[in-house]
């Protein structure tokens, strides 16, 4: 079985709750309509701007940059990686 077919098979079996990441949600910061108009890249930029503002108040916030705002994690979705990869991810993070 190819890697793609294995991933598609996992997606077929994946719980709907785990895949709900892509749905539009309201938040503490935005109403439902506004929150639905943003994508992951927008939220990433908003988060970086917020972190920059907090760093002006306290340089210790700089330590959170690599942990919370790693660019490659924007497209990361735990629902499509294997159980072993999830376990490894949990150990690292």
Model description:
This protein has helices at 3-13, 16-19, 32-36, 40-57, 65-68, 83-92. With 93 residues, it is an all-alpha fold. The chain has one domain. The chain is built from 6 helices and no strands. One of its GO terms (cellular component) is t-UTP complex. This is HEAT repeat-containing protein 1. It is found in: Nucleus, Nucleolus.
Which structural class matches the secondary elements? mainly alpha
Distance, first to last CA: 30 Å
Oligomer: single chain
Number of domains: 1
Low-confidence region ranges: none
Strand content: under 5%
Sheet with the most strands, sense and barrel status? none
Question: What letter string, H or E per element, gives the SSE order?
Answer: HHHHHH
Instruction: Sum up the overall morphology in one term.
Output: flat
Number of strands: 0
What's the average pLDDT? 79
Q: What proportion of the residues is helical, as a percent range?
A: 55-70%
Radius of gyration: 17 Å
User: How many helix segments?
Assistant: 6
Brief synopsis:
This protein is mostly helical. The protein has helices at residues 3-13, 16-19, 32-36, 40-57, 65-68, 83-92. This is HEAT repeat-containing protein 1.
List the defining traits of the structure above.
single chain; 93 residues; mainly alpha; 6 helices; flat
Topology:
Elements: H1 3-13, H2 16-19, H3 32-36, H4 40-57, H5 65-68, H6 83-92
């Amino acid at each position: 079985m190819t890697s793609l077919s294995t991933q598609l098979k996992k997606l077929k079996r994946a719980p709907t709750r785990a895949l709900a990441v892509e749905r539009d949600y309201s938040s503490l910061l935005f109403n439902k309509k506004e929150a639905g108009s943003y994508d992951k890249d927008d939220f990433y930029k908003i988060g970086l701007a917020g972190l920059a503002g907090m760093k002006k108040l306290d340089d210790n916030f700089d330590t959170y940059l690599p942990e919370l705002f790693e660019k490659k994690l924007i497209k990361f979705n735990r629902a499509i990686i294997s159980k072993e990869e999830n376990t490894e991810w949990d150990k690292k993070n």
